[in-house]
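Morning. Coffee machine broken again, so started the prediction first thing and wrote up yesterday's gels while waiting. Chain of 417 residues, entered below exactly as on the submission form.
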Amino acid sequence: MTDIFIIGLNHKSAPISAREQYVFSPDRQLNILNIIKECVSEAVLLSTCNRTELIYSTHDENHHTKIKETFCSQGKLTQKETDNFFYFHKKRQALIHLYRVASGLDSLVVGETQILGQIKDAFTLSTNAGFSANQLNCVYQHMLNTSKKIRRDTKIGAGSTSVGSVAVQLACNIFSSLSDKTVTLVGAGKICELAGNHFADQCIKKIYVVNRSIDRAKKLAEKFTGEAYPLSELQLILEKTDIILTSVSDQPAMITRDMIENVMQTRESKPLFLIDIAMPRNIDQEVNQLPDAYLYNIDDLKQLADENLHEREKEAKKAEKIVLEKVDKMHNNGEIAGPLIQSLHKRVSLIKENELERLYRKNETLSDADRINIEQSVNQIVNKILHDPIISLREGLNEDREGQHKLLNLFKNFFNL
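Came back before lunch.
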């Protein structure tokens, strides 16, 4: 079996005040992976507004403590908080957890599809940087197949399945109609685009897009026949807005109580609906104390998500069964093919190290940076060459139980193992 491990926290295990400390940009993700690279064989770091998880493999289980300490130290939690908020999964349980996450079974809104794209981005980032190779990539491919089967064979995705759609539901609960309302999207990323699509479907009167990059704001606003503004004009736009949705990274409390208090003075007691789905949060929590201002964060959306959950429980049970079947199949194939794949990795690693050593002897003036770049490129080439044969081996073992011995011998002879 492929031995992988997961350390993380999510919307179930930790409050938003803890989770927002562990939202990492792609550059920060790579920096953390670089810090722990000596302790892991391969690693991927998944960071979203609802979860941050380190997925890794290691040949030395004594490294778990150091990996956890390094990972958890990226925030400012106390030891007690760390113990309470973080979870650890290993081997089979880690696979089950990862497959459930990818299939939307562990999401705030059960069945949502956005998480799969976020996982794809995380694996792509790690693989391109040389931190993830064949072992985790095999898990990744099997995970994708599992997720596709669940989407195909169940109705887990029926109904509202995204944060944006749930936000629109909540707006409909506050306002009797959205046709005469205006929306301001603060941010121009994927979440704002998806939310904007849902609001546009409700025939919203006007959509404004406010963003640090005016070009990105204009590009998104065009999709809704809306208007775009720079972040410097946020206060003016808020004064003519009924619904505000924020999702801007690295801008904590950019909308203050004083800003909203000034806005409310121009609204003549008309309600203002604010949805803060950013991590860290963009809106000062004291805004909720103002009359007629209704502020909700990403955890508040869980109530609506729970209402949808009842209708999906039957489909979720079907999906859980598929996950277990797929993990067990991965387990069985891992026991059969694992030693052979490990032998292949050792053989290729030895060849790679010998060739790199020969290259460095001939080019002693190469800088450390040059050597790192060369090694990363070589790792990517090796991983891409090995990827398809290993995936084909695993798929062949799935499809042809009777021919397993013949397939294993063919693979062994082909690579001279």
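Strands lie at 5-10, 42-47, 51-57, 87-90, 182-186, 206-211, 227-230, 243-246, 272-276, 293-297. Going to sketch it on the whiteboard this afternoon.
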